[in-house]
Amino acid sequence: MRLDEIKGNEKLVERLTASIRSGTVSHAYIFEGEAALDKKAFAQAFAKAILCENNPGIGCDTCLSCRKIDHDNHEDLIYVEADGRSIKDEAVEKLQAKLRVKPYGARNIAIISDADSLTLRAQNRLLKTLEEPAGGAILILLSENMENLTQTILSRCVKFRLDYFGKESYEGMLDKAEEVADLLLAGEPFYKRKEAIAGIIKDAGKADAFLDALERVYRDRLIEPAEKGKLYKKSQIYENVAIIEETRRQIQRGVAKGYALKDLVIKIGG
Ligand SMILES: [Zn+2]
């Protein structure tokens, strides 16, 4: 994904593009966003925009650097991920060793997923890197809730909150979720329910955003009793939200998204 393909975060994207083009990119960022957001995809799009040879600030998808990022084999991009439940001290030590190596291109970029899971010791070690980043390196921390990070880390990073993004906007997904909720309320037969979510089943990347949107639709109905809200019993809405949460857990446990969604539209009531 290129930076300009990230929807729903236009102001942030504009700001990042401007900072790359004016040479004022910061050396450390925290991007916070819900679990359902593919924050790594966002970080890769940002890295692409920084390193792109043809179209810096946005990326081009065709230069060597962009293609390497797409293929997950860019030499200057360093990924740090949780090992089990946490990112430990040793992982940060390894990262620091890699950052000491001169980049092939303009600079090294480290993407730290699940930064919330950095142990306190690991955070303290990372602090040194944040204080004196080696030769133009950029650190990108991805977090679900940045309150899990120490103040000293937070104070050394530029912090942004990510909204829903994707090639299809969250707003588009809300319309879809509304349509599906109406259909479920009307008690339509299974084949019609399945038909309504066919597009989402086909493109698994949309499943999380769809679940979030559907939950939002139900929660909105709780506070809009005047119109559509009166069609639902409150207890039914809570039950539906519980089914959505169970579907998320199934997906986290490794159940195929398409299967979990089909199960959802069978179980949910009007
Ligand atoms: Zn490029």
Tell me about this structure.
The chain is of the alpha/beta class and 270 residues long. It has 2 domains: 3-161, Rossmann fold; 170-267. It is 50% helix and 9% strand. It has 12 helices and 5 strands. It has helices at residues 10-21, 39-51, 64-70, 89-100, 120-131, 151-154, 170-185, 190-196, 198-202, 207-222, 234-252, 257-267, and strands at 28-32, 77-80, 109-112, 138-143, 158-161. The protein has a 5-stranded parallel sheet with strand order 2-3-4-1-5, with helices on both faces. Helix 5 (120-131) links the parallel strand 3 and strand 4. Helix 4 (89-100) packs parallel to helix 5 (120-131) and helix 7 (170-185) packs across helix 10. It is elongated, with a radius of gyration of 21 Å. The structure holds zinc ion. The site of zinc ion has 9 residues, from helix 3.
Distance between the termini: 37 Å
CATH class of the largest domain: Alpha Beta
Structural class: alpha/beta
Number of β-strand runs: 5
* Total count of helical runs of at least 4 residues: 12
Elements, N to C (H/E): HEHHEHEHEHEHHHHHH
Characterize the main sheet.
5 strands, parallel
The rounded Rg comes to 21 Å
Helix content: 40-55%
Beta-sheet strand percentage? 5-15%
Mean pLDDT, all residues: 89
CATH architecture of the largest domain: 3-Layer(aba) Sandwich
**Rough outline:** elongated
Strand order of the largest sheet: 2-3-4-1-5
